[in-house]
Amino acid sequence: MQDFKTADDCCSSGDCCTPPPLALPPKAAACSDGDACCAGALDPSVSIYRRALWIVFAINALMFAIEIGAGLKAGSASLQADALDFLSDAANYAISLLVVGMALRVRAGAALVKGVSMAVLGTWVLAVTAWHAWHQTLPEAVTMGSVGIAALLANAASFAVLWRYRGGDANMHSAWICTRNDVLGNCAVLLAAAGVFGTSTGWPDLIVSTIMAGLGLQGALVVIRRASVELKGATWSTPKPATR
After folding, report:
1. For residue 218, how many other CB atoms are within 10 A of its CB?
2. In terms of pTM, does the model score above 0.90?
3. Any residues with CB less than 8 A from the CB of 230 and at least 6 apart, and which?
């Protein structure tokens, strides 16, 4: 007959009373501010992006109001083109503020919209230039020069703010391209003002506005291409914090 052991027998021998250890999953270590898991949860880059975009948005909105009035008063195609570029940039920065921190597909879609708007603006500038060429308008060189210097300083400030984000996603990259084109455009406006003053003709102004339109169209092509690539490989999900 089989010999059964009682609980008392087990405890007296000391070999079977102790229950097996309970295997619990390891407790997740609390992450500190510098850990990778906290970096995704806190996502400080979003607030930094927003701060930078608010600064350049305010600069561009103010300069549009100043430059569009001066461009109409001076009869300068290049100043009007630059003013509308300020307006386009302000609208683009507003779009960027709405989508920063959202899913990559949303941000890439916003960048695509901005690229198309840049292309429309470039086409419109070409049309305005053709109108001024047909009517042979003569802009005021002094007004062009003074407003051009103010616009250059404003865009240089925006360029400095966005410089560190030029390698970001299509949304931030497009914002930097807009500002880069603005700085180049302002330098061209100053050259146009000098040309108008020296030749007493409107052709330097028309040449510069044509170049600015070309820069806008080239920048639009770059933004549209990059946004299209990101749209192909993006999903609707927002970035998740990294896990250990």
Report:
1. 15
2. no
3. 104, 105, 107, 108, 111, 169, 170
